[in-house]
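Final report, Chapter 2: Outcomes

The project's central promise was a pipeline that accepts a single protein chain and returns its three-dimensional structure in a standardized token representation, suitable for archiving and comparison. That pipeline is now operational. To close this chapter, we reproduce one record exactly as it appears in the project archive, with the input sequence first and the structure output second.
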Amino acid sequence: HEINSCLEYFKLPQLPDTKLLVIVSRLKRVTTIQKLLVDQFVILETMSPMDFLEFREYLFPASGFQSAQWRILENTLGLPAPQRVLHGGKSYTAFLRPSEVTPVEDAEHQPSLFSLVERWLERTPLPS
């Protein structure tokens, strides 16, 4: 919701200055959530490989970073397909359920937050 609302603001022909604080606040929240997610790796680092293998089967078919939701988030933020790490030489969508592939690929073809912010910056006059 937070990122999608920011996308909608950046899609406007003119972004009202009053909405910048809303956007910054929402993106700060997203950043905090992402930090919490990434920090979960600290827990995994305490596990032996055997402990992890026992635990891993409960995450099937994908752990958080391989989930469709995470891939949609990556696409929405603007991670280009050529910059993705291939797993086993396969596309990142190869490990998704068939029902998840279309929404993930749809997100890849929508304007990303990166591209919309870039477009906004290009049309924003800078003081001299």
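Archive annotation: The mean pLDDT is 88.
This record, like all others produced under the grant, will remain available to the consortium after the project formally closes.
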